[in-house]
Design a protein that fits this description.
- The chain is α+β, with helices and mostly antiparallel strands and about 240 residues long.
- Helices cover about 15% and strands about 25% of the residues.
- The chain has a five-stranded mixed sheet, covered by helices on one side. A five-stranded antiparallel sheet has the order 11-8-7-6-12, with no helix packed on it.
- The radius of gyration is 23 Å and the shape is globular.
């Protein structure tokens, strides 16, 4: 496996970890990256960094005929893909919300509305508006046999598509209603929604977009090895 490295690939709209063969040429890599980043081959400029936190450019992959090994590519390094003509491809505009008009309400305006969650809770005496004798009701204990550190598969809404990862947290949380057990999972790929923290409270630690919290019934524990991400003719 000495001819294969695992690197991070980032662009204005994407971020993922990829396994690359060192004999792959820059031209072949660009063809694969177009499917991942949405940036046309002719518009791509690829630069090599030691990490996302290190601004020093080690090399620019400018010769399409050279293999990746020519540039000394090593595992855990970073390939940054930029678009030379973003105005034509809309690169970066899908994630730029700076030009989006925001709808904002003051606390007083929100409390005066009748079509809000707050108004619903007040009308139906839910949550903090419930009678005191109801708020004192204890949450029933739930027996969850999901060991921390075990490999798992998380049920997906897409048929035939599963998300694998490692269990990092099992227990009660402060988000949501605060009731019932949640399972924190670190995905193998960036399919998640957080980095193990929600609303400022940390439950475990992982990379951004690799963490997720789901209910126990969505989790199946077993011998689920990490799926390979090798480049081939179909995917990368």
């Amino acid at each position: 496996m000495s001819g294969v490295v695992s690197v991070f690939v980032v662009s204005p709209d994407t971020s993922s970890e990829r396994r690359l063969e060192l004999h792959t040429t820059v031209e072949q890599l660009k063809g694969k990256l177009e499917l991942i980043t949405g940036i046309p081959v002719a518009n791509q400029i690829i630069k090599l960094y030691n990490s996302e936190n290190d601004p020093t450019v080690l090399a620019e992959l400018s010769d399409d005929t050279k293999p990746l090994g020519f540039y000394g590519l090593r595992s855990l390094q970073l390939l940054k893909v930029d678009d030379l003509n973003p105005s034509a491809t809309l690169t970066g505009q899908l994630t730029d919300v700076s030009q989006v008009d925001k709808f904002e309400l003051t606390n007083a305006e929100y409390e005066a509305r009748a079509d809000t969650v707050l108004a619903f809770k007040q009308r139906n005496k839910v949550g903090r508006f419930a009678p005191k004798d109801q708020t004192k009701a204890t949450t029933p204990e739930i027996d969850v046999n999901i060991p921390i550190g075990s490999r798992c598969e998380v049920e997906s809404t897409e048929a035939g598509f599963s998300k694998r990862g490692t269990v990092r947290f099992v227990g009660l949380t402060k988000f949501g209603t605060g009731e019932g057990v949640w399972v924190g999972v670190e995905y193998d790929e960036p399919f998640g929604k957080n980095d193990g923290s929600v609303q400022g409270e940390r439950y475990f630690t992982c990379r951004p977009k690799y963490g997720v919290f789901v209910r126990p019934e969505k989790v199946k524990v077993g011998d689920y090895p990490e799926e390979g991400l090798d480049l081939d003719d179909e995917e990368m």
